[in-house]
């Protein structure tokens, strides 16, 4: 028995998306910019998919810019908007964001800070990872140098849902546009671009059962972006490059399928997740992180820290038992780092070390939950023994050194 519980990192292709991919690839899509019949057919595919995506997300078709996925959408939003705002008013170089954002946002902003003189205000979050709107309001009290606010719709590690509509209201009151990274939310939560008030919204197809390598940035009418790539002038010059008609069809098919029964599916996932959580929290030293189950948490997200364990060891042990989950945070150059999200939520590095994220998706079943629950207890015991013997070895190494250097 095996259980894939890492849908937040990528989820299986939905049958509707697979069918669209196979049909489009078999046909030979044609270039949507070509004038001949094949090109015009490809253009129809792109535009029909644009319309479907827009209708599903409360946007206008003209507000959809196709991209290669979440990372590109975030970069186009942040770099493109910051540069456009600075071109109109050089004083506007400040970005407001929380430290719990995905690396696609964080590292882009840090790059802009290091290379283009952007200024950054880090907004605090509470113990569940939720932004305090009062802190945003305070940061917007003197908005003259503020270029933009970026606030993710839902966190990819702990699943916390952010007050995006309230943040957009506050930003607009100060004359500042807002970008939201909705990569984890689209397909899972009700996302209405118009109602949210956001000016820019990033999404990625492989998170809701579409193909890897396709996504979109929703750009509110009237929002100016400086393009990142220059070329054929596709997507009204905002994002040059031959459009992927087949990918667009598959993305629209996946989103339509994801939203067809979204409320029932969210309830089904939340019930599975709650049973998983109840079992995980039986393990001594296990603590739920993020918001309590409910509307402030993604329905498929269970994030737990296990005291005295290394998350990486746990993922290997669980993998050996057929359970695929993740620590939720990136390992840099092979070195496990405590999650920046958990640190921003106020956890110590030691507490954050034992983090595991289980994320359920459209093809998750009750058997997946049973498999994970059967494996977790023994895995935690073994991971703790491993951590214990590593610390004992480290203590043995440190003691003589201390003894040599310190007179008592
Ligand atoms: N933003 C969030 C919140 C994500 O979870 C991810 C992917 O994990 C991304 C952005 C990047 O998306 P992509 O993999 O499509 O580049």
From TrEMBL:
Which coenzyme or cofactor does it need?
A: pyridoxal 5'-phosphate
Listed under catalytic activity are:
(sulfur carrier)-H + L-cysteine = (sulfur carrier)-SH + L-alanine
Q: Where is the Aminotransferase class V domain?
A: 4-370
- A Pfam family reported for this protein in Swiss-Prot or TrEMBL: Aminotran_5
Looking up InterPro entries in the UniProt record yields: Aminotrans_V_dom (IPR000192), Cysteine_dSase (IPR016454), PyrdxlP-dep_Trfase (IPR015424), PyrdxlP-dep_Trfase_major (IPR015421), PyrdxlP-dep_Trfase_small (IPR015422)
Q: Name one GO molecular function term.
A: iron-sulfur cluster binding
Residue ranges of the region described as Disordered: 384-408
Keywords assigned by UniProt?
Answer: Aminotransferase, Iron, Iron-sulfur, Metal-binding, Pyridoxal phosphate, Transferase
The similarity annotation says: Belongs to the class-V pyridoxal-phosphate-dependent aminotransferase family. NifS/IscS subfamily.
- This chain's protein is named Aminotransferase class V
């Amino acid at each position: 028995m095996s259980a894939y519980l890492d849908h937040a990192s990528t989820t299986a292709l939905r049958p509707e998306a697979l069918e669209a991919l196979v049909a489009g690839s078999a046909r030979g899509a044609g270039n949507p910019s070509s004038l001949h019949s094949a090109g015009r057919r490809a253009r129809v595919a792109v535009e029909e998919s644009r319309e479907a995506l827009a209708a599903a997300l409360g946007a206008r078709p003209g507000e959809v810019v196709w991209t290669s996925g979440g990372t590109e959408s975030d970069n186009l939003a942040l770099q493109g908007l910051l540069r456009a705002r600075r071109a109109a008013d050089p004083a506007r170089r400040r970005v407001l964001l929380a430290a719990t954002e995905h690396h696609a946002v964080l590292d882009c902003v840090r790059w802009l800070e290091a290379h283009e003189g952007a200024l950054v205000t880090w907004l605090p979050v509470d113990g569940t990872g939720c932004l305090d709107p009062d802190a945003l309001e305070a940061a917007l009290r003197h908005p003259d140098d503020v270029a933009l606010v970026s606030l993710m719709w839902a966190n990819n590690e702990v699943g916390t849902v952010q007050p995006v509509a309230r943040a957009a209201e506050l930003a607009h009151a100060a004359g500042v546009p807002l970008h939201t990274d909705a990569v984890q939310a689209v397909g899972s939560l009700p996302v209405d671009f118009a109602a949210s008030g956001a000016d820019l919204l990033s999404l990625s197809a492989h998170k809701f059962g579409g193909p890897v390598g396709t996504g979109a940035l929703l750009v509110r009418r009237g929002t100016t972006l400086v393009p990142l790539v220059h070329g054929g002038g596709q997507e009204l010059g905002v994002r040059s490059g031959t459009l992927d008609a087949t990918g667009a069809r598959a993305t629209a098919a996946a989103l339509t399928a994801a939203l067809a029964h979204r409320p029932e599916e969210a309830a089904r996932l939340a019930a599975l997740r709650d049973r998983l959580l109840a079992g995980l929290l039986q393990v001594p030293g296990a603590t739920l992180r993020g918001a309590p189950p409910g509307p402030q948490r993604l329905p498929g997200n269970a994030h737990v820290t296990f005291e005295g364990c290394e998350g990486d060891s746990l993922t290997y042990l669980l993998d050996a038992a057929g359970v695929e989950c993740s620590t939720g945070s990136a390992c840099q150059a092979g070195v496990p780092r405590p999650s920046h999200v958990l640190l921003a939520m106020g956890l110590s590095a030691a507490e954050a070390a034992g983090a595991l994220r289980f994320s359920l998706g459209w093809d998750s079943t009750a058997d997946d939950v049973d498999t994970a629950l059967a494996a977790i207890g023994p895995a935690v015991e073994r991971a703790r023994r491993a951590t214990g013997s590593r610390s004992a070895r480290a203590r043995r190494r440190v003691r003589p050194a201390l003894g040599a250097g310190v007179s008592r």
